[in-house]
């Protein structure tokens, strides 16, 4: 993700839930505190980083704190594999190896831990990525909430693909590989017992095969990003900012399942802000858009791929994301602030 | 670490603090639950794993949950760098890149976070390893304790070194690079306000330069291990088990600083079980022992290096560790069970 203008310091004397939500507050914390201290990159923050001295290898790490641990369609174990595999994939890389660091709360039922780990192991096996190392820490009751998992992945970049959040170009078509809003609404509904979870399930799944299917298009593929925390709004804003372009898309093209729309209506959520774990946006040269859509749709996980819109020149407003509404109006889609949905991944 | 005989299941229906302490309970949890689910290695568990398809690269991950965050000699930030750099070094690798995953509790003072990250950044800079990627999650008040950090390191194996916990051979000399017991006693004393912390400081520091200094000895260096959780007792037991040998050492050779000995006496701790973060054991062919000691002592962090003992044939008891006491008796040094010192790293 990219860094945005810091908020005034006085608002930020303590860590807020929104600092972890993937929106403006997260960007502010990274820009003001994390990156200056760790000497992090000044350029765009990608989902995975190149390993110095190893030109084809990338590294990505992700902490998982989802609550509840189990939800329709997945659990923290499968999510921890998919999330990191997908971050590697968004740099055009296939997964080579995973590490798994467990942080456990004293008193956790071992049966619950076993179920999480069985799911994690199954997800890794389905992806074909070995878990090669790990770590287990335990803290006292009340010092953590059951299980937190940090997975780190090493990936190898697919030959021919060279994608970056800074590589969108005017004229690019903007594609989305699958339905929107399923993960966030499912987890929230399960956590709060709202009842929608009977009709929906998280979309958590690995995206590396979709990326491999796009590899044949080579340089025509410019940007890949999975709209997780902060949703589609955050993903598009980050890309528009990092590439200094404007992104326009049609509200009517958004693939929002009916139960997701109903849940968002009742909960007052903007589906553009809801986290996803099984779809990605693809920015591709216009003349390769049909081929890219066909490649995505050739796999089950891309069966619902659609064209959302296109990139235009910045026209004095680089970084702007605009939605064309059903009635023909244009609405600016801002970066979410960040406090909407804690512990969604 | 190696896996030991599982304890009966009935004792283990919930996660205990000792499951994270690096002793027998940790080994049991790994053997019974973690490794079967994740398809982990059946051989010895090394501090860092080889990356498939990348013969010179290793990967290691470690979660840090130390309490308090700051203690004499270090803090969770520097510890998170040193711990992972040292795990890479124990596979004979120099650090190439780090990832940092932060898990923050809502309400944490930003000034405290900034101090932790400044220390982390400084430690990484001193080692010369870039932090190339990261992640930040926030959970609600009471769902974590201030800051947990998971660091993952990619390392490149130094040419000539080929070390493994399974490579100890009868006749090897057993060396220790520095004083024993400083980290664990310092953290415990600080946490509990016992007063020893005025006289001692954690030994937290990177060991990669010591390992580089040993690289010239090549194949004569058989095993490297830093005695962190579980202390020297766990490290030697793991090596003895994985190599199917017997290890003997002299109690009188243990470099235990006076304040550490006093703290252990009063607290009822066995210094052999106390965690260290700045020393390592080296198993080296007998005829290279003097050269190895000289190499260690050539650097400030190895200035206190000593010879502890030697490896002997198993004689029907593979995996046994024996201490020759000051009065000439022999005491079997067991793997610690694990509940002694929670949240020490």
Automatic annotation (TrEMBL), chains A, B:
Residues 169-316 form the PurM-like C-terminal domain. Residues 46-156 form the PurM-like N-terminal domain. Pfam families: AIRS (PF00586), AIRS_C (PF02769). PANTHER family: CARBAMOYL DEHYDRATASE HYPE, HYDROGENASE ISOENZYMES FORMATION PROTEIN HYPE. Belongs to the HypE family. This is Hydrogenase expression/formation protein HypE. It comes from Streptomyces gamaensis. The lineage of its organism: Bacteria, Bacillati, Actinomycetota, Actinomycetes, Kitasatosporales.
